[in-house]
Specification:
This protein has 2 domains: 179 residues, Vaccinia Virus protein VP39 (Rossmann fold); 59 residues, Pantoate--beta-alanine Ligase, Chain: A,domain 2 (2-Layer Sandwich), CATH 3.30.1300.30. Helix 3 packs across helix 4. It has a 7-stranded mixed beta sheet with strand order 4-3-2-5-6-12-11, sandwiched between helices. Strands 1-10-9-8-7 form a 5-stranded mixed beta sheet. Strand 2, helix 4 and strand 3 form a beta-alpha-beta unit. It contains 8 helices and 12 strands. With 263 residues, the chain is α/β, with parallel strands linked by helices. It comes from Wenjunlia tyrosinilytica.
């Protein structure tokens, strides 16, 4: 068995596995930006294949999409044109100071900051990249969901998809690493073309709502909204006109914060 990230190495396969034809995540982000009065200049950090960055561009914004994966960036430039795409690490990036009105970070990308230093690096970089009063809009897994709840840990998830005439099957298991405060994922891919299985290991930081409020305050942000749903990956999903919820204990967490104190 070889180790690789089959999805990030193959962005077309990523989009086939996680389809979003109606651009639900981009529409939700645009709704947040409008609701809280963000200006036109947006950084989509951890932009992946560029679908959401391109949607925001189509909504009339000036967008920079940033990601660490060159494969994802090449795909974004070819298939989702409009934004400028650059390589950057969300755990610490140095872009034009105070050049953005909003930073958008979707699909749990923020949670690839595994340590406190990495979370500080992300928020420091956001602060340095935002104009005064700029917004941080993020969507991620909710660490609070895993306090005494195990339904996502007790079930193995199996999915199949076909790509270029080959059928792929993924088997995914999750476990909580309590000491590191990480949700660890193991995903094994098999294919019907006889190729060896591919094992992918990854992890997300389990960040809790009150912890996140504290981190944001330390970095000069005021939390405007922090809630579990509705959002682009909730069930039922967010729909146009839906208002932010009032609870924060389901499996997704949605954040809107304003920079009130630049350093």
């Amino acid at each position: 068995m070889r180790n690789a990230n089959l999805l990030t190495d193959n962005p077309v396969l990523y989009e086939a596995r996680f389809p979003d034809e109606v651009r639900l995540a981009g529409r939700w982000a645009e709704d947040c930006l409008r609701r809280y009065g963000a200006g036109p200049r947006v950084l989509d950090i951890g932009c992946g294949t560029g679908r959401d960055a391109a949607y925001l561009h189509g909504a009339g914004r000036t967008v920079v999409g940033a990601d660490l994966s060159e494969a994802m960036l090449e795909h974004a430039r070819a298939h989702h044109p409009g934004p400028e795409y650059i390589r950057a690490d969300l755990r610490g990036f140095d872009l034009a100071e105070r050049s953005f009105d909003a930073v958008v970070c979707l699909d749990s990308a923020l949670l690839y900051c595994h340590t406190n230093d990495e979370l500080d690096g992300f928020l420091t970089s956001c602060r340095n990249s935002l104009a005064p009063g700029g917004l941080l809009v993020a969507e991620m897994r909710n660490g609070a969901f895993f306090l005494g709840r195990t339904e996502l840990l007790d079930t193995t998830s199996v999915n199949e998809l076909s790509w270029q005439g080959i059928t792929y099957r993924s088997t995914t298991t999750l476990r909580v690493d309590r000491a590191a405060q990480l949700l660890r994922r193991t995903r094994v891919w098999t294919a019907d073309d006889g190729s060896p299985p591919v094992e992918q290991r990854s992890a997300w930081r389990l960040v809790f709502p009150q912890e996140l409020r504290h981190l944001l305050a330390v970095h000069g942000f005021e939390v405007l909204a922090l809630y579990d749903g509705p959002g682009p990956r909730t069930e039922p999903p967010w729909r146009e006109g839906d208002l932010p919820g009032a609870t924060a204990d389901a499996d997704r967490l949605h954040l809107v914060a304003r920079l009130t104190r630049a350093h």
